[in-house]
Task: structure prediction
Amino acid sequence: MFNEWLTAKRYRWWRHLVFWVLLHIVFAWTYYLRGYLHRFWYDAALLTPFDLCAAYLSAYWLVPRFLLRRRYVTLGNGFESILLVFAIITRVIQVYLIYPEYFPKGYNGRFWDMGNIINYSIASYALVFLFIGVQLFKRWFSNERQRLELVQLNLKSELAILRSQINQHFLFNTLNNIDTLIFKNPVAASESIEQLSSIMRYMLYETNTEIVTVKKELAY
Result:
């Protein structure tokens, strides 16, 4: 069930929803520890859209275009550009929308507070890399599952070919024996044909299931 939930397309939106809900639970916990839990939803409503943009741009544009093609320098430049732009946008939101709620008498800090911008950039890097890591793990898990399915399919094909070869060889010998019995012992030949029919019926119809009982195998 977990394998299907992790890889099936019909659960894609649920996977994304679970990821962001869990992430915001962690964020809410940090707000609670600092005594600002009552501010969490206001801050999250303003900042989350930009976190989503940075994460999805990185995971679905940068990674397929550059990481999977091993263009690492371009990938690094892309990460820096995206996160720097969103860090500046976030700084604007902080100074003009969030800080006035925290400091009703006015915010005295500088707008170009590089320490604050760098700190938020590091937090953004962590969020984006976590999101990309989850996506890469899902991609690896899906590829590994497909690889195992192909291995099992190859084994089944090889087994089917082997069984087919064995069946043909067995059928050839049996028909030769029956041909000999037709002239020497017609009754035994008739019984052999019935037994052969029973065996072939078993091999064609009763062994195509995933499980065959030991009783049937012994009877065969």
